[in-house]
From TrEMBL:
Keyword set includes Membrane: no
Keywords: Signal
SUPFAM superfamilies (UniProt xref): Periplasmic binding protein-like II (SSF53850)
Protein name: ABC transporter substrate-binding protein
One Pfam assignment: OpuAC
CDD domains given in the database record: PBP2_HisX_like (cd13641)
Matches recorded under InterPro entries: ABC_Gly_betaine_transp_sub-bd
Organism in which the protein naturally occurs: Endozoicomonas euniceicola
Range of residues in the leader sequence: 1-19
Domain of life: Bacteria
ABC-type glycine betaine transport system substrate-binding domain location: 32-315
């Protein structure tokens, strides 16, 4: 997924989850269901998992359709299709989603990522083992010389978000609020998401210091153990929305990044059609650590969503079996044997 900005996706949307009673439904009640297969790895993985489980545990006729955040959200509101967006970064189109929910066209079935999307300034874990004080921004400020600049010997490097991405604004404003420039740091534009992740990989291979912005869930944080630097304050949502994420913010204040809600969005017609499947979608959720590890496996294995789904269902039964009844688990297990 091209990272539009976890920051800009975060926060002000107060979605609510409607709980449906567990009712005994005919096994064919689910009927035909369409799921948006979004074009980034975590979303396509969840979509394939949902398709397999809905097909074999709930007897749905589940079909994947291509999707992306903005067009999928608009189509669900205006046309009532697809039925399910398994991983939806809701605040990317907050006003439209709010309206769709208020008009009862859309519902939030549950959280795709239980902790929400995560952003922060990070340092490698091996560096923190050597300098424990680097867990806090005060410690980083005391060790600026550790973080050598790739071009200027008299500066220290802070790797920011690539130019053109919305997260460049929040990272830049927090760089200013933390007064990193005043202690010798230079805000380095990596040029691309690949170059940013490559800088972390290169530092790890050489066991060198690294300090910069990154987000989760991602394959990078699944492969490389990083520590999020504590700014010494809690997230200030008002400050974050009104200033940190705004390009014209003149006096940014220090705040930790608030989590970004990442939900499973469904149409009202699907919720009425299959309450039991809604119950599954409400229970199906991943922690960032779980998803980071799965994304790392996908990248290393060059796996698509279907391959990753099969890997997850075979190798992580302790996770997904908690989402289903014993009878449903057995149906999924038997279906896996037929693959």
């Amino acid at each position: 997924m091209k990272f539009a900005s976890l920051a800009s996706l975060s926060l002000s949307l107060s979605l609510f989850v409607i709980a449906y009673p567990s009712v005994a439904a005919d096994k064919d009640q689910c009927g035909k269901v369409t799921l948006a297969d979004m074009n980034w790895n975590s979303a396509t993985l969840i979509a394939h998992i949902d398709q397999f489980v809905l097909t074999h545990a709930f007897h749905c006729k589940a079909e994947l359709v291509p999707g992306d955040t903005m067009p999928t959200g608009a189509s669900m509101i205006e046309k009532g299709e697809p039925d399910i967006a398994p991983e939806f970064w809701s605040n990317s189109m907050k006003e439209a989603i709010d309206k769709g929910i208020s008009e009862r066209r859309l519902l939030v079935a549950g959280k795709a990522l239980s902790e929400g999307g995560e952003e922060g300034f990070w340092v490698p874990e091996y560096l923190v083992r050597q300098y424990p004080e680097l867990k806090s921004i005060e410690g980083v400020l005391k060790h600026t010389k550790l973080f050598e600049h790739p071009e200027y010997s008299d500066k220290s490097a802070f790797y920011g978000c690539p130019a053109g991405w919305n997260c460049q604004i929040s990272a830049g404003n927090l760089f200013k609020a933390l007064k990193l420039g005043q202690v010798g740091f230079d805000l380095v534009d990596p040029g691309s998401g690949a170059a940013l992740s490559g800088s972390i990989a290169r530092a790890y291979e050489r066991q060198e210091p690294w300090f910069g912005y990154y987000w989760a869930p991602t394959a990078v944080l699944g492969k490389y153990r990083m520590v999020k630097v504590d700014f010494g304050v809690k997230p200030d949502i008002k400050e974050f929305l009104s200033c940190t994420t705004q390009a014209d913010c003149l006096s940014p204040q220090v705040t930790m990044y608030p989590p970004s809600p990442v939900n499973t969005l469904v149409t009202a017609s699907f919720a009425q059609q299959s309450p039991e499947a809604m119950g599954y979608l409400g229970r199906r959720s991943f922690t960032n650590q779980q998803m980071n590890q799965l994304l790392a496996w996908m990248e290393d294995s060059q796996a698509d969503g279907e391959m990753a789904m099969e890997y997850f269902l075979r190798e992580h039964q302790d996770v997904w079996q908690a989402w289903l009844t014993d009878a449903q688990v057995e149906q999924v297990v038997q279906a896996l044997k037929r693959l």
